[in-house]
Write a structure and sequence with these properties.
41% helix; alpha/beta; Rossmann fold; nucleotide-binding; single chain; six-stranded mixed sheet; DNA binding
């Protein structure tokens, strides 16, 4: 390892935004793979600009190793409309001259592989940039960075405008790439897949943690538990997040270099993230037996056919994720379910008690002439979400708006804050069906955790179109794929099955079809052994759940028979046996999870 960048007592602030960084000292090694997290407006992008030396600090010093090659993807791009893909990807029309032209790549399959991986395979090198959407321009700019060698690659929100397959491909590609990596992203799956260290920008400082998102969550919660300095609401939210991480996919739970017993202590009294049966009963009560029945639906987006002869049903309490490439028609489907548009053929029956709320990707419906709290109270002053009743101010607090911020004019809010307000106003209408189109756009990781905490206990029907793999696995129970063939395909294997079906392009040396590189390299299992191991893992999880229920029943009986000595002795013996069996099952689960990690 060799040091390539140093920040020495760096400070930076802006007039309106205030002080962002104060007296920050950091070092960056040549093989570092660092994810940067923090609230919107905390200073993450500012930190990246100073590390790249595209912006100077107010005080302190930033030093680079001599001849350091830095490639940067900023949040905002300014590409001239008369440029072509060739100019951007192979030339120096956008990148600094120091990065050099890559004419030798023009006939190389590497450029096509990268464009394919980023979902731009349909483009020719002479395609003009001018008519492209913002997302397409951003992907072309990202391709320009990936075809070149650099000592440090700095990416600010690289997964924006990438679908699930594109995010998966980018993670695999970056794992094979030499050099240091700094990435700001709210995609928590991506952070875990790519990064070996996390920097958290908070309170004008940068805290460092070993590991990706999961390790950061565990270490931050442990620090807060020991210090006991954070209010109970925020601590409970973090503990619930840990419960999800601990009980989720094994690759996520076994990665962090963190004491398992400490994690267990933190979540010992935390209930499962979602009581699916109870929510299903509540949803049936609120919605009746019918939500959406689609019979032989024909649906188009302009001249493009989306569905042909589709028969599909959405029931009360269903929590459905829709996966598909950009342009597959996910938004068109949600707009039809929301009643914004009508099908071009067939029959759509909506239940008589359905009260849908549609979260679109646009922000135009927000009232710019009101202050934030007024914009919430315009919808409702008190809101009942599941078994929780909140005032408009309390709901705003859940979404990360402080007492001072709730009086900010809506027109002055950032993109992320406006997105939060949009979701907040939707929930304030107390719908029983949520139709969410890319709900995680522009939200920071803390706000995402708060949103997922609300959705965990929300007793209604939910249809989510999202490229956020973490959100899909966290808040939905059923996954459907749209593959451009006019059908809706049920995917029992979730995101992994989707990636296997689309056959994502792979970087050199990376396992294909959605199998994480670390999983295949570490486990050394064949595909058959891998399937069996996953079945065994699921069996152990069911066994642990049953033992936990049995333990709870015995504890209840202990309380009931507190004066019966003989009965207490019997129950204590039963409890000890169950706890021993539970400990053995957990140990077996951990060993198997390590094999699969």
């Amino acid at each position: 390892m060799a040091n390539i960048i140093n920040l020495d007592r760096v400070s930076k602030g802006y007039g309106a935004a205030g002080q962002l960084l104060t007296d920050v000292s950091l070092g960056l090694d040549d093989d570092a793979r660092i994810g940067i997290v923090g609230l919107n407006g905390a200073g993450k992008s500012t930190l990246l600009r100073m590390l790249a030396k595209t912006e100077e600090p107010d005080s302190g010093r930033v030093t680079h190793r001599r001849d350091l090659r830095v490639a940067t993807l900023p949040q905002t791009l300014d590409l001239a409309g008369d440029l072509t893909v060739r100019d951007v990807v192979l030339g120096t029309a956008w990148l600094p001259q120091s990065m050099g032209a890559e004419h030798e790549w023009a006939g190389d399959a590497g450029v096509r592989t990268i464009l394919d991986g980023l979902g731009m395979g349909h483009l020719g090198l002479d395609t003009p940039v001018g008519p492209m959407s913002g997302g397409e321009r951003r992907r072309v700019a990202l391709a320009a960075l990936l075809v070149r060698q650099s000592d440090l690659l700095i990416l600010d929100e690289p997964t924006n405008h990438l679908d699930v397959a594109g995010v998966d491909w980018l993670a695999k590609h970056l794992l094979t790439r030499r050099g240091a990596l700094l990435v700001v992203t709210h995609d928590r799956w991506f952070l875990d897949a790519v990064c070996t260290m996390t920097w958290e920008v908070v309170d004008e400082q940068v805290h460092t943690y070993e590991g990706g998102y999961a390790a950061w969550i565990l270490a931050r919660a442990e620090r807060q538990r020991i210090a006991a300095s954070i209010e109970a609401r925020r601590q409970n939210l973090l503990r619930k997040e840990i419960a999800w991480l601990r009980r989720g996919p094994p690759a996520r739970t076994s990665k962090p270099k963190f004491r398992i017993d400490a994690a267990n202590a933190l979540i010992a009294d935390v209930p499962p993230a979602r009581d699916q049966m109870s929510l299903q009963r509540l949803a049936t009560t609120r919605l009746g037996k019918q939500v959406y029945d689609l019979e032989r639906i024909e649906l188009k987006a302009g001249p493009k056919p989306i569905f042909q002869d589709l028969t599909w049903q959405v029931g009360p309490g269903d929590r459905i994720a829709i996966l598909g490439a950009n342009g597959a028609g996910k938004t068109t489907l949600l707009r039809m379910l929301a009643g914004v548009t009508t099908p071009d053929g067939g029959r759509l029956v909506t239940g008589s008690t359905v009260r849908p709320a549609f979260l679109s990707q646009e922000l135009k419906e927000l009232p710019g002439n009101l202050r934030l709290l007024e914009a919430v109270e315009e919808v409702a002053k008190r809101v009942k979400l599941g078994d929780r009743e909140l005032s408009a101010g309390q709901l705003a607090e859940v979404f990360g708006f402080t007492d001072k911020r709730i009086w900010t004019p809506v027109s002055d809010l950032s993109g992320g804050e406006r997105r939060r307000l949009q979701m907040l106003r939707l929930l304030a209408t107390e719908p029983n069906v949520l139709l969410l189109d890319e709900p995680t756009n522009d939200l920071d990781t803390d706000t995402l955790a708060a949103l997922e905490d609300l959705l965990d206990s929300w007793p209604g029907t939910m249809v989510v179109a999202s490229h956020d793999r973490y959100l899909v696995e966290r808040v939905t129970d059923t996954v459907y794929g749209m593959f451009g063939d006019g059908k809706m395909v049920h995917l029992p294997g979730g995101v992994d099955e989707y990636l296997a079906r689309v056959g994502t392009p792979t970087a050199p040396g990376v396992p294909p079809k959605g199998v994480p590189q670390a999983q295949q390299a570490v486990s050394g299992l064949s595909s058959g052994e891998l399937r069996q191991a996953k079945k065994d893992l699921a069996k152990l999880e069911r066994q642990m759940e049953k033992l936990a229920e049995k333990e709870a029943r015995i504890n209840e009986n202990l309380a009931v028979h507190g004066s019966d000595y003989d009965k207490l002795v019997e129950l204590e013996a039963q409890l000890k046996a169950v706890q021993q069996e539970k400990a053995e099952a957990e140990e077996a689960w951990l060993e198997l999870a390590e094999q699969l990690s």
